[in-house]
## 1
Amino acid sequence: QVQLVESGGGLVQAGDSLRLSCAASGRTFSSVTMGWFRQAPGKEREFVAAISWSGSSTYYADSVKGRFTISRDNAKNTVNLQMNSLKPEDTAVYYCAADTHPVWNPRLATRAYSYDYWGQGTQVTVSS
C-alpha cells in the first residue's frame, strides 16, 4: 500500500509559479515510478510528468515541457512538481500517482492505467 497526499495548489495569475508536493507513505517509496496527472473540468485526466525510481530519468508532456520540472527526494518520500510560466490552460486538479512496477518505461509512464495508487488531488487555478 502507498498513501499519497498532494499539497501546494492554489490560485495564481498567468506567468506565476507554483510548486506542488506529494508526500508518500507506506511501502518503499524509492522503488516506485512517480507521476503527475491533471484533470480539467469536462476533460479526461492527462499525463503531465513522470520520474523514475532513482530520479535519473524524467518524462514530460509536450504541453508542459520547458515550464514544469518534476523531482523527488527519496530520503523524504516526496515528489515535487515545479510549475513556472503558468497559463490559464494549466488550470486543473493535479494528482500524483505511484507505479509500483520497478522498471522505468517512459511510454507506460504516460498512461494512467500504469499507476497503482493515486492521491486525492490539489486544485490549481491560473487566471488570465
## 2
Amino acid sequence: QVQLIESGGGWVQTGGSLRLSCAASGRTESTFAMGWFRQAPGKEREFVAAITWSRGSTYYTDSVKGRFTISRDMANNRVDLQMNRLKTEDTALYSCAHVALLEVGSTWSPKIADEYDYWGPGTQVTVSS
C-alpha cells in the first residue's frame, strides 16, 4: 500500500503562484510514476501532469504547459507541482496519484485516471480575479 498526502493548496489571485506537494509513504519502492489530477465542481476529473520516477519524464495537459512544472524528490518520496500564472479556470481540488511498477511489456497512459492505483485526498486551489 502507498499513502499520499497533498499540501500547499490555498487561495491566490489571478496571475499568482502556488506550489503543491505530495508526500508518499508505504511501499514507495514500487513507484513507476506519480501524477496530478484536478476536479472542479460539476466537472469531471482532469489530468494535469505526471512524472516517471526513475527517468523523470514529464507529461502535461495542454492547458497548463508553460505554466506548471512537475518535479520529484526521490530521496524524500515527494512530487511537487509548481503552478505559475494561475487562472480562474485552474480552480479545483488537486489530487496526486501513484502508479506502481508496470509488468514487462505493458504500457502506461499518464492521462488515464484508471492507470493510477493510489490517490491522495486532495488539496483545494482557488484562483480569483
## 3
Amino acid sequence: QVQLVQSGGGLVQPGGALRLSCAASGRTYSNLAVGWFRQPPGKEREFVAAISWSGGSTNYVDSVKGRFTISRDNAKNTVNLQMNNLQLEDTAVYYCAAYKQTIGDRAISSSEEYDYWGQGSQVTVSS
C-alpha cells in the first residue's frame, strides 16, 4: 500500500507563491505517476497538473500554465507543485494522487486513473 503525505499550502496574497509537496511512503514503487487536483469551494474537483513516473512528461490545465510547475525527485519519492503568481481563483483544497504507471510515460489528467490520494492541503489566495 502506498501512502501519500502532503505538506505546504496556506494563505497568500494575489501574486504570491506557495509550494506543495507530496511524499510517498509505505510500499513505494519506482513507476508511480503523480497528479495534483483541486476542489474550489462549492465546486467539483478538477485536474491541475500531472507528471509521469520518469518525469519525462508533464501536463497542466490551461489556467495554470506558465504559473505552476510540477517536478519530482524520485530518490526522495517526492513530487512538488510550485505555484507562482497565485490568483483568487486558485483558492481550493489541493490533493496529490498517484498510480502505478505500467505502460507508457504519459502525464494523465483523469482522476479515475489514480489509486492513491493524499490528505489534502488548503490553499487560500486572498487580499
